[in-house]
Amino acid sequence: MISDASRPLGVPSRRRQATERVLCVLVAAAIAASALLPEGAQRALRYDRAAVEAGESWRLVSAHFVHLGWRHALANGAAWILIVSIGRPFASPWVWLVLSLASAAGVDAGLLWAYPQVEWYVGASGVLHGLFAGSACLALAGSDVKRGALMLALLAAKLGWEAAGGGVLQAAAPDFPVLHEAHWLGAAGGLAGAMILLAGRRRL
Predict the structure, then answer these.
(1) Mean pLDDT of 17-24
(2) 92 close to 139: Cβ distance less than 8 angstroms
(3) What is the reported pTM?
(4) Which backbone phi and psi does 121 adopt, to 5 degrees?
(5) pLDDT at 87
(6) Are 66 and 43 in contact (CB under 8 A)?
(7) Residue 164 — φ and ψ, nearest 5°?
(8) What is the mean pLDDT of residues 97-120?
(9) Which residues pair with 120 in a beta bridge?
(10) pLDDT value at residue 167
(11) What pLDDT, on a 0 to 100 scale, did the predictor assign at position 171?
């Protein structure tokens, strides 16, 4: 049990490392496999404002698993593996789950209430930004302040560039616009999730 507030949250034990690697690969495979879904299934699973408002609430979860083809799915799958590899010293599978849920909630709530003009959305990029932000926050609050600060600085620079009208290379989905708002919302959700985890640790 981790009781020292100066130690990183959710540090995986050696016995769990192999399991975590398998889970990481399975999640990446699931993201990549979403490209196999037929167009009709993608439309039924994506975030669609009108459908959500009509009661199809499952779209708030499923939208983050649907992608716009192989390049989009593979890019997000690779990003997932990279983020988990960087954040593994600070996060267990349970922590990744909490950060994922918080990031997805940030994207969903933000799109519904702050961006009514967004009619539909798919992809894991919003959640991935939240995972990066959340794990950076945990690193900053734990045993690797320099890494956490660098991660947050890189994330802030990327999001600031996007806010100023820039954007990442769209090689993953060149025929579709990147919804930068989802990145900002996911990052905010991930930071909120990290704050919740840290507050819970302090009460132990």
Answers:
(1) 78
(2) no
(3) 0.85
(4) -160, 140
(5) 83
(6) no
(7) -85, 0
(8) 95
(9) 48
(10) 56
(11) 44
3-class DSSP state of 90: helix
**Angle in degrees, CA 29, 32, 37, rounded to 5:** 120
Distance between CA atoms of 193 and 23, rounded to whole angstroms? Answer: 21
Which one-letter DSSP state was computed for residue 67? -
Place of tokens 């009514």: 116
Q: Where are the alpha helices (DSSP H) in the chain?
A: 14-33, 39-45, 49-53, 59-62, 70-87, 93-113, 125-141, 145-163, 180-202
User: How many angstroms separate the CA atoms of 57 and 83, rounded?
Assistant: 28
Query: Mind listing the domains of the chain with CATH numbers?
Result: 14-202 (1.20.1540.10)
198/202 Cα distance (integer angstroms): 6
pLDDT in tens, 46-61: 999 999 999 999 999 9
Residue type, 55: G
Tally of CB atoms within 10 A around 19: 11
Instruction: Give the tokens for residue 125.
Output: 């990029």
State whether residue 48 is helix, strand or coil: strand
Mean pLDDT across 194-199: 93
For residues 179 and 126, what is the distance between their CA atoms, to the nearest angstrom? Answer: 9
Q: How confident is the model at residue 21 (pLDDT cuts 50, 70, 90)?
A: confident
Selection from 73, 55, 187, 189 nearest residue 124 by Cα: 73
